[in-house]
Amino acid sequence: MFLMMIPSVFFAQRKSDIGIFAGTSFYMGDINTSSYFYSPGIVIGPVYRYNFELRNSIRLSTFLYTLHANDQDFSDPIPRDPSSFSGNYLDASAVYEFNFLPYKTTNRKYNQTFYLSGGLGYNFVISSDVPSKSHLTIPFGLGYKINITKRMAAGAELTIRKTFYDLIDGVENFSMKGDKHLFGNNDWYTFAGIFITYKIFNYREDCPTYEKK
Fold it and tell me: pLDDT digits over 26-79, tens only?
């Protein structure tokens, strides 16, 4: 069984990229309701991409990041308790990427594209100064990637995480009627940054026979 698995692993590596993503993170919710890139934190972590073909990929990632906010930064008459929060988190996700243009790492012709992404994730709370729990997320976003060497690619991406939890900031949704809705909660977080990936292996592209194609 082990020998039979080797060709499958080898073939998967031929279509795989590994790399790192780094950038900034910010929160929007009951404390920050409208300010983009307010009080930005840090996000960093590894990424793995499996390229099915020129327009479709699956990407796995694990990001460490920070979020924080304080309602003293806003002129808002709504009282909140608590009025601020700060925390460290781990975001794990699997997303599907659709390339607007045909794209292939190491390829000279199909060497850049914009793409859309969407999938499923989970947010783990490492530490927080307000009561908060790990929860499910739906990540989606827009990015751009381009080949920079025969084996390396780079890009930029903005992704938004829709949460299914309303206490990242420790504050439940404010409502005049006191209603609470799972899909209407106010807590979201966003990552914006750049990434660099490295092509693990591809025989056709590495072989001199195909180098000029």
Answer: 998 888 888 889 889 999 999 999 998 899 999 999 999 999 988 888 776 566
pLDDT at 79: 63
Q: What letter represents residue 203's amino acid?
A: Y
Cα–Cα distance measured from residue 141 to residue 36, given in angstroms and rounded to the nearest whole number: 15
Beta bridge partners of 160: 140, 190
Measured CA to CA, the distance from residue 41 to residue 83 in angstroms comes to 18
Residue of 125, 123, 45, 124 lying closest to 85 (CA atoms): 125
Cis amide leading into 46 (omega within 30): no
Q: Which domains does the chain have, with CATH numbers?
A: 2-210 (2.40.160.20)
| Helix, coil or strand: residue 120 | strand
| Beta strand ranges found along 13-151 (DSSP E) | 16-28, 41-53, 56-70, 84-99, 112-128, 135-147
